[in-house]
Amino acid sequence: xxxxxxxxxxxxxxxxxxxxxxPERVARITRDxxxxxxxxxxxxxxxxxxxxxxxxxxxxxxxxxxxxxxxxRADDEPQWPMLLRRYRHAESLRFVWRDVNGLDSVEQTLxxxxxxxxxxxxxxxxxxxxxxxxRHGIARDAAGAAQSLxxxxxxxxxxxELNFSSDIDLVFAYPDGGSSDGARPLDNGAxxxxxxxxxxxxxxxxxxxxxxxxxxxxxxxxxxxxxxALSFAAMEQxxxxxxxxxxxxxxxxxxxxxxxxxxxxxxLEALRPFVYRRYLDYGAFEGLxxxxxxxxxxxxxxxxxxxxxLGRGGIREIEFIxxxxxxxxGGREPALRQRGLLPALAALRARGYVPEHxxxxxxAAYRFLRRLENxxxxxxxxxxxxxxxxxxDRARLAFGLGYPHWDALQDELDQHRHGVAREFERVFEARxxxxxxxxALAAYWRDIKRSDAAxxxxxGFADANALHAQLLEFARLPxxxxxxxxxxxxxxxxxxxxxxxxxxxxxPGIAAGRALALVQAVLRRSSYLALLDEQPGALARLxxxxxxxxxxxxxxxxxxxxxxxxxxxxxxxxxxxxxxxGAALQAVLAAAATDDIETRLVALNEFRQSFAFRxxxxxxxxxxxxxxxxxxxxFLAEAVIGAVLPAAVEDLARQHxxxxxxxxxxxxxxxxxxxxxxxxxDLDLVFLYDAGDAERESDGARPLDAARYHARVVQKxxxxxxxxxxxxxxxxxxxxxRPDGAKGLLxxxxxxxxxxxxxxxxxxxxxxxxxxxxxxxDAQVADAFARIREDTLRxxxxxxxxxxxxxxMRQRMRDELDRSGSAGxxxxxxxxxxxxxxxxxxxxxxMHAASHRALCxxxxxxxxxxALAGIGWIAAEDAAxxxxxxxxxxxxxxACTLDGRARIVPESDDVAAxxxxxxxxxxxxxxxxASVAAPAAPAPIx
Length: 942
Hints:
Layout: H1 5-21, H2 23-30, H3 33-45, H4 47-55, H5 80-100, H6 106-136, E1 139-141, E2 150-154, H7 155-158, E3 168-174, E4 178-180, H8 188-204, E5 215-216, E6 229-231, H9 232-241, H10 245-252, E7 255-258, H11 261-275, H12 284-302, H13 315-329, H14 341-350, H15 356-380, H16 391-400, H17 406-428, H18 439-446, H19 454-459, H20 464-475, H21 478-481, H22 485-503, H23 508-522, H24 526-534, H25 536-548, H26 550-558, H27 563-567, H28 578-591, H29 597-620, H30 626-656, E8 664-668, H31 670-673, E9 683-689, H32 706-722, E10 733-734, E11 748-749, H33 750-759, H34 763-769, E12 773-777, H35 779-793, H36 799-817, E13 825-826, H37 834-848, H38 861-870, H39 876-898, E14 904-905, H40 909-924
Parallel strand pairs: 3-5, 3-6, 9-10, 9-11
Antiparallel strand pairs: 1-4, 2-3, 2-7, 8-9, 8-12, 13-14
């Protein structure tokens, strides 16, 4: 190892001093070139290491061997501080050795340092408990159960990323009130106060061996004036009533490190709603900005610009960037509730909240800054975060970190800090004053009670007077007078910005009215105003979407939690596959694990609303195809049915037990079965079960036979789907397509269903089977249904009779259900509409499935068109025309449901072209409109 001239004297002095106290050990170690080099690196990097080796030369023989954890015996209490300190120093020396010789990554060094503090705290706590128990007995709760003090590590200790020479931020708590059981009992508050005091003494008092750890208790409730230890109940009450923004940030990293850690995790779970709001908490921006401003003022006052932690582009800015996203989203996304910074940043990166390149910049900077910070502290075990001024010290740092000189290290330091500062400014850019171009509307809103509608008219609102009246009524709401100054300031920025965005939208008046309704809905939750305040680009997208979709506007006003899904700009915002939808749902249900079915229903509803909004957003903003959106909506409904059906079975089992053998399955028909669901569509369902032994009963205290048992499960399933919750309802279900319609049984046996299809089903009911598929329930019943469906569809039929039946039924449906007229064309039931496409394909399957089994393998329209073209029944050019027509009609239909309108549209060029294409194929395949009376069959629900 070549040592620069500036450091040769440092190394020589260190070796001379060490040789003076341990000549034989030094000689033995330096005989081996590799070990000598490692020792030289240690001495050049750390005067603290040299001092410890001179005090305890035997540590030279154990530089990479962990010492034994000390045992603090009750009969040796005076020696406790010495044992703790020597153990801590021996381990710290080992960590320096490993770090400077490249044996540990920076993450490993931080984790080892944190684990050492955990161990010392736990050993000291056990000793303190034992000493107090000897005098006052064991602390117990009112029921007699033994109690233990729980020590929480906060800050870097809680995140398992403790600096080499950092103090440890601790908070003490105990589960319950009560008293100790000794001859001189103490109530638990006083008892644990004394345990905590003794723990602090053991860790922090200074003697000839130095100290183990500086202990900082200022993060406890009420700070330095608060009690040293509080009960869990008192802790919860404090955070409910007194908790402040900075405490939320502090408790992100909280971790029980000693005592009853299981009970400690229970308290953290109880405090979770304080730290992580259930809603999207964009108000965290302002709180962190205020904290950063205070830090910057202190940095300027104390001239700490080069401070590795607090200075511009320092470690604290990285922490703020990560903690901001955790606080905003952690209430809804448990994966973000990480204590350590790098795991939290990895979770944010994985979910798209921090872009890949930005995450790389922050990770590299964090590792660099933390390693440099640790080396600065290892130099003399000083609690410092500033690089030294002395040239010699700088040279030692540069050499130890592998740089040829200090300037090279300084250049890289500057690059990292610049990258962090740039990212911090991007994230925390202040949102003050009116948005660009909104000055006139901001002035109008500030003085609305004395203004007129002229500024609105100038902005582009056609009916400015009506909008002015709405805004004036809103401005007079009593609720506005009760807003905090912070919330009112947000409102005064957001509302003009919304009006400006509405004026530029496709429907200014509609957009403004819907935006005003949203603002009124979220006034009591200022964090939603903060979201709009902090995300001006998202605000513009919100107005664009709300102007196009009454469905989305109504739901986001009723459930503001959906705002994030509506505004999400991540690449993975929309679920592309059934498997991903199912996996996401299972994660939501696991997070809401409870026997309370209503709680699970709320979680299900929030999940459904969230994913439906993501699909709607992809449709409107990302221009996702209508066919893909309709398919995803069907996947979503399928996942929900798959969760609700087992929940209904579980609920019934509590009263009536379980039914051995057999099984139940849900069959989707119509647009659900065809994977072409719309926004707000109901679900066409049929339920089937395996009768098995008709005499069997459920095994509960109140047994039910198979027929009643399955009927109850179906009733419960439908009730759960349609039950109102604070998060809305899941779906309306329509069971009229079951055998014999509304007069039939709620649930059918497989055998009766097969017999009905074989003996009594109308042609249109067999048509309906073309789009039917199992979506949930027992796999054997699903397989049996698939066989019945295939057997029915593949039955030999007279093509002429199929054509006649299909044409007659289609004409009857047009006569009864077609709403086309002066208002426009009925996309579903009109001549040449979606039902014509469905009937055409269903007829083709009924006519040709007997000889072409592949026609039974799909329920989706595009695939059925391709399959029928594949067997030559539809000409290639007709198939292409049908595909285009179906896509166009479905897109118009989906747009109508998104905007809450009936599926009746003006006869535009694209609609006319689609109609002509459908009717042309309809006629070329021999389906003429029937003039004879329709058969005496009930009208189908398709």
